[in-house]
């Protein structure tokens, strides 16, 4: 046999071995693949298979209602129906026919449906919104034809509703869809990508109380996406209602009182507990705006870029307080021991500090007077002498005791400014805008601080809290918008102010004289209980027109309600503009009190 023939026979004898090796190689690869799929990645593939076979339909919870102190609805939830498309169930070829059928059935524009489809999937990742806020008849027509509209569905959405519109908007706040960054954190707390969260106000402060828990339905579907059977159902849990301290009637009157002002705030507190009865701010906004499923950029910019800043709560933003600050200076004078309660000082047309002569507002002074008449007439030169005499640190100490230059403790405090009470230490640190030591404290600063100008900036809510101290006998309370199982009368939320009884009594008597026969006499009238208070007219340190203030409490001497009215950039004086606002609120409060007394049979 030739050598070539032998080689061919040897090659033929090796072919079965090669084939066997190839078969073994392929089998080993298949076995390895099966081992990898079944053992190492089995759970993941089972999960993917279930996802193809099982559809989870989430059911959003109904958010708890917000109610006023008498149980009247301030915020609730409403159902709205929307049209959705699951693009994976509708081919490009089938879409035109489905689109036209939906347009005819629901009276929608085909080009609008095309535009919505082109925007892609919603944030939930599996469907696209085609139409919002369907009418009941549209929902019924869709239900009747639903079997022939494969890929389309009508689902319910639960949106927040504020039946009183702008009323108490800054206190209530609003809800918004969560962001993707928030979802990454909140998913562990049971939130869904379609969830809405309290963004501001009470809605945010009591989010966990109001939100409820998601439910869902587990459905088995076939390869065509058709439901085969229900595998389980877990109903959603509604959030809890929350009763607020707000009084709807007082809130409405407070906002009506602000209606003709360019800006401002009205705060009404229960003097002994700090319960907020009214918290109004102007300009305002409608929180229903944030409940819309779709908002155009133009609408969004019109609200957030508005130069009037309607989203800013004036009740918690600081301004020059003017003469409403004088009780703080009086407290500093008496508590320092340098200007006791019975002291009398000579007031003049003006007093020079540094290079400036600081005038009294009547241009002549009020003669030789004590604290009560100094408050009654609102004498500037009296309080210049007291403030300059005790110094900036003593004034700041009194302010701190009354709750200024700190947050009040209200639940929506992240929206609240601490304000400013300037002193020599603050000036030495640079006043917040210059290098330390370059702008020292000067006599002019102290004179201005004595009457609540320039270096003093407080919020209307802070002033109401401070006047509550004079009304309730010396307790610094914590303003709050809901009870929420918290003891607001506990030492944690209600502390005794260190103050001599004679100091408290002197300030009370002075505030009463203001209303009896002083700058606040306009508060008297039918239906108004005996009250004490203080007017204020403040120069706007930012350069705008004057502010008008009025703070008061009633009935005198042991007040039950504190009202602070603030008219921003409204020149003319606190007695002209702010006092009538507070008077309307007091009149409504007294009407309610008398009506309640009559119904309960109390004389």
Quick tags:
single chain, 603 residues, alpha+beta, five-stranded mixed beta sheet, five-stranded antiparallel beta sheet, 20 helices, 23 strands, elongated
Radius of gyration: 35 Å
What would you call the shape? elongated
Give the helix/strand class.
alpha+beta
Residue ranges: pLDDT <50 for 5 or more in a row? none
Q: Count of helical segments?
A: 20
What does this protein structure show overall?
The longest helix is centred in the first third of the chain and has 38 residues, at 3-40. A hairpin with a 5-residue loop joins β11 (264-270) and β12 (276-282). Strands 2, 3, 4, 5 and 10 form a five-stranded mixed sheet that branches. This protein has a five-stranded antiparallel sheet with strand order 12-11-23-22-21, with helices on both faces. A three-stranded antiparallel sheet has the order 1-8-9. It is of the alpha+beta class and 603 residues long. It starts with a helix and ends with a helix. It contains 20 helices and 23 strands. The mean pLDDT is 89.
Per-chain topology:
Blueprint: H1 3-40, H2 42-53, E1 54-59, E2 66-67, E3 73-85, H3 95-106, H4 110-118, E4 128-134, H5 136-145, E5 152-161, H6 169-172, E6 175-177, H7 180-186, E7 196-198, H8 201-205, H9 207-210, E8 215-221, E9 227-234, E10 242-243, H10 248-258, E11 264-270, E12 276-282, H11 297-304, H12 326-336, E13 345-347, E14 350-353, E15 356-359, E16 367-369, H13 371-377, H14 380-390, H15 392-401, E17 420-421, H16 424-428, H17 443-450, E18 456-457, H18 460-472, E19 475-477, E20 494-496, H19 501-517, E21 532-538, E22 547-554, E23 561-567, H20 574-600
Parallel strand pairs: 2-10
Antiparallel strand pairs: 1-8, 2-3, 3-4, 3-5, 6-7, 8-9, 11-12, 11-23, 13-16, 14-15, 17-18, 19-20, 21-22, 22-23
